[in-house]
Design goal:
By secondary structure, the protein is mostly beta strands. It has a single domain, classed as Tumour Suppressor Smad4 (Sandwich). Helix content is about 0%, strand content about 50%. A hairpin with a 5-residue loop joins strand 9 and strand 10. The radius of gyration is 17 Å and the shape is globular.
C-alpha cells in the first residue's frame, strides 16, 4: 500500500472513487494505505491508479522494487514501484494538467495500448 498526496490548483473539485474530494483552488488531500483509486478531473478525464501488488509489468525488467502501481491517464501511463511505504505526489495545475512525482521508488512513463482489436475470420458461406 502507498500514500497519494494530491494538491489541486484547478478551478474545479476533483472527486475520488472512495468518496473523498480534493477541493479546488489549492485543496490538499492525502489518501493513505491506498490500493486502486480513480480521480475524476472535470473536463480533462480520469486518472486511474491500479494497485499491482507484487505483480510486474512485462518489458520493464530494470525496475526491481517489490510493490507496484500503474497510473493510467487518457493517453499516458506511468509505472511506479516501491519498497516499504510508497509515496506518490500529484499536483493538478490551474489548467487541469497533472504532474506526478515520488521521492521513494522508481517512477517512469510508459506506453500501453488502450484498446486491442482482435479480428476473427468467418469462413462460413
Amino acid at each position: 500500500m502507498y500514500t497519494l498526496n494530491v494538491t489541486n490548483n484547478y478551478s474545479y473539485n476533483v472527486p475520488a472513487s472512495n468518496a473523498k474530494t480534493v477541493a479546488k483552488d489549492g485543496g490538499k488531500t492525502t489518501f493513505e494505505k491506498q490500493g486502486s483509486l480513480l480521480l475524476e478531473i472535470p473536463g480533462i478525464g480520469t486518472l486511474n491508479f491500479i494497485d499491482l501488488g507484487d505483480k510486474k509489468l512485462e518489458g520493464h525488467p530494470d525496475i526491481t522494487e517489490t510493490w507496484g502501481v500503474l497510473i493510467r491517464a487518457i493517453t499516458t501511463e506511468a509505472y511506479y514501484r516501491y519498497e516499504g511505504n510508497g509515496v506518490l505526489n500529484l499536483e493538478i495545475d490551474k489548467l487541469g494538467t497533472s504532474t506526478l512525482n515520488t521521492d521513494n521508488g522508481s517512477l517512469v512513463q510508459i506506453k500501453l495500448r488502450e484498446l486491442s482489436i482482435e479480428t476473427k475470420m468467418n469462413l462460413a458461406i
